[in-house]
Amino acid sequence: DGGITxxxxxLFRKEGQNVTLSCEQxxxxxxMYWYRQDPGQxxxxxxxxxxxxxxxxxxxxxxxSVSREKKESFPLTVTSAQKNPTAFYLCASSLAxxxxxxxxxxxxxxxx
Amino acid sequence: QQQVKQSPQSLxxxxxxxxxxxxxxxxxxFDYFPWYQQFPGKGPAxxxxxxxxxxxxxxxxxTISFNKSAKQFSxxxxxxxxxxxxxxxxxxxxxxxxxxxxxxxxxxxxRA
Lengths: 112, 112
Description:
Distance between the termini of chain B: 38 Å
Distance between the termini of chain A: 35 Å
Number of helices of chain A: 0
Structural class of chain A: mainly beta
Strand content of chain A: over 45%
Order of helices and strands of chain B: EEEEEEEEEEE
Radius of gyration of chain B: 13 Å
Number of strands of chain A: 11
Largest interface: A-B, 27 and 26 residues
Number of strands of chain B: 11
Largest sheet of chain B: 6 strands, mixed
Number of helices of chain B: 0
Oligomer: heterodimer
């Protein structure tokens, strides 16, 4: 059963704490992406990775960090430097140089 | 800075009616225009996509119309059903580029 999994579905953290969101795919896709979704603002790109051990900043990378040590995995860390981290976070993947992106089910992060 | 402008923000349609969502873009280098459908609490899923070499593409009850000279494209949902109630996002990209630029989304509610 191929697809993208994100965990956890809901995440709560206290202000000042770093938190890591998991994203795993078994589609054998080369590229992976992280988006943030806020009401009325659509999807905004945080980071993306075209190949293992390489990644690029998207439009709103400040306060976030990523790693790509394995093709299947692209974890996102929301650091304490992110001023407004409460949001719905979506991971996606695609084949190399193909525009069709497949999305995971998302993680809803709430900062208390 | 949003490269794709989407309207309306929300719409309500009666069962059996037509839903129309419009998007406009500025970057003439865009040559791939997908539409995504998202149900509450889920990740977006690709619904239909079009390239600018055609003016219309139809898949079932969903049709994309594309006007290259006006730099606009739209999604028509014919014979709208309650199961079509969702948020719809238009997007644009340069074919082969990794980044998609998303519109802000339209929440469609189909009343039975």
